[in-house]
Every structure is written in C-alpha cells, then in structure tokens.
Amino acid sequence: MTAERTPVETAPPEARAAVTPDDRLAGLVLRLPPSEMAILSRETRAEGRVSHRAEGLIDEAGFTRVPSHVRGRLTEALSIISHQLRGTGPRPGVGAKSGDTRVNLGAALARRDKAEGGRSGARSMDRLMRAEPDSLMTELRRAVSVVNSVNLNWADLIRAAATWHRPDDRAKLQRQWARAFHEELRATRPQPASTPTGTSPDQETP
C-alpha cells in the first residue's frame, strides 16, 4: 500500500524529509508571488531569466543530479504551471489528504468532456497515452489548457517531466491518469430528488 503524501506547506519538520522532490517543487512554485509567476511564464519571459530562475527552484527542490534533458522538461513544467496559476488568488496546496481540492489530470479531462458534451478531454488523454519524452511537454501543455483549472495535481505533472524517459515510471503515471479518466466518466451523476407517488415533477405537493 502506498503511503499517503504529506502537504509540503503543513508537514511537520520530521515528515518533510519524506516529501519527494516533485512535491517540493510543486510547493515552491505554488508559493511564488505573481511577479515571479510572470517570470516563469513562457508568455512574458525575458531572455535567460526563465532558465536561471527555474534552475534555482529545481535545485532547491532536490533535483540536483538529473540530466539536461530532464532539467529542460522540468523547466517547461514550471512554465506550464506558472502560466496557469499566475494572477489567481490563494492557490491550493500540493498534499493528497482526504478532502484535498487537487484533481488528477485524467479525472479533470473527463470532467471537461462531461461538462461540455465534447471529446477534447478524450483526445488529450489519447495523446498523453502515446506521448514520447520529446513530445510530452507539448501534450501536457495542451491538456492543461483543455482543463483550464488551477486545482490540478501539479506534482504529478512535475513527476511526469522528471521520469517520462523511464518506461516503467511512464507506464505507471499513464495507468493512473487513464484509470482516473474512466472512473470519472463512469461516475453516476446526481439524481433528482424522488417525487411522491401520484405527483408529477411539475406539481407542488401540499
């Protein structure tokens, strides 16, 4: 059984050592002020500043011995997250406790399709299932744009960026996203309150 993750912001000192680098990096970017979010966002970056700022966050989170192609994907992940979150109010934490508002990317894509009656979420999910390391960040950026929510599981996006080149880790995340996607699609929608026998829905009961 997998141990429950502890939110970075609320973890006691003795528990913080168990928090993974992807959780730590998500926590760091979630706490950035809007001005730094703008620096990390691809739309408003100044030449050289994004890479420099991202490098500092990546190292601080504990990704100190990763190859350059992984650092590149992590930098892109920070850009995706900061672009989605900049200008928002108080942001959700990165923990996975009961009641957490963070949503698995697969479930979020399914909710989008259920809400709109379309298939943009399903198409994004299909592309993520086929994404190679060199196309992953493009597909993640598209998926986040489709969902258009601040309440995603951002640590999972960072985990994907850090491990997608390893087939077993990639397959594990793909299974998690696919399972959440299909479970959300199968979820029963709330049913209307039952109507007293002999009373039509349009009639008022005495």
| Number of extended strands | 0
* Count of separate DSSP helical elements: 10
Beta strand %? under 5%
Helices and strands, in order, run as HHHHHHHHHH
Quick one: CATH class?
A: Mainly Alpha
Report the principal-axis shape. Answer: globular
What does this entry look like structurally?
Pfam families: CRISPR_Cse2. This is CRISPR type I-E-associated protein CasB/Cse2. Residues 191-206 have a biased composition (Polar residues). Residues 180-206 are annotated as: Disordered. The protein has 206 residues and is mainly α. The protein has a single domain, classed as Orthogonal Bundle (Peroxidase, domain 1), CATH 1.10.520. The chain is 57% helix and 0% strand. It is built from ten helices and no strands. The chain has helices spanning 13-16, 21-30, 34-40, 49-61, 68-85, 105-116, 120-130, 136-147, 154-163, 167-186. Helix 4 packs across helix 5 (68-85), helix 6 packs across helix 8 and helix 7 (120-130) runs antiparallel to helix 8. The longest helix is centred in the C-terminal third of the chain and has 20 residues, at 167-186. The radius of gyration is 20 Å and the shape is globular.
Helices and strands in order, then pairings?
Layout lengths: L12 H4 L4 H10 L3 H7 L8 H13 L6 H18 L19 H12 L3 H11 L5 H12 L6 H10 L3 H20 L20
